[in-house]
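We close this part of the discussion by returning to an individual protein. Part of our work consisted of pairing the sequence of a single chain with a tokenised description of its backbone. What the numbers capture is local backbone geometry rather than side-chain detail. The amino acid sequence and the backbone structure tokens for this protein are reproduced below.
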Amino acid sequence: MKKEWYIVSTISGHEYKVKEKLEMRINSMELQDNIFRVIVPEHVEVEFKEGKKKEKVKKMFPGYVLVEMVMSDEAWYIIRNTQGVTGFIGSSGKGAKPIPLLPSEVDRILSSMGMSRLDLSNELVVGKKVKINDGPFKDMIAKIVEVDTENSRVVVTIDLFGQDTSVDVKLSQIESL
């Protein structure tokens, strides 16, 4: 099973409380191997009032929290039964597990916050093997040769007709193995 991103619905206005409670439960129940990150998506809006520039942090999706996790019965149960959580988006209910977000959707949301879906310090290391999940080389295993976090790109080598070939891809086109 691999870690993926899910949208958790919360009581509106309780996003930060839910995030705090989830992080406390993850630590107390030692679920760090199943639930990795809990994020309240937000962005900065610039307003001008009385001729003065003011920056205001606003939630991108009021009433929702993003959770990076491995979907296991235990993790699913812990999140659903956290105070303030009303459920998962993409689940039909009746005990059905939710559908994860697509990597491109996660990349769009996180990049607008200056974050990355991949753990840059552990997952984007020269020499590490990754899987290409989009484009003409989809489903091929590649090895990272160069990382350009500033432009959200990596250079990888793939085995093409028995020969190592360098390919430049976006971060959104790869996933960790």
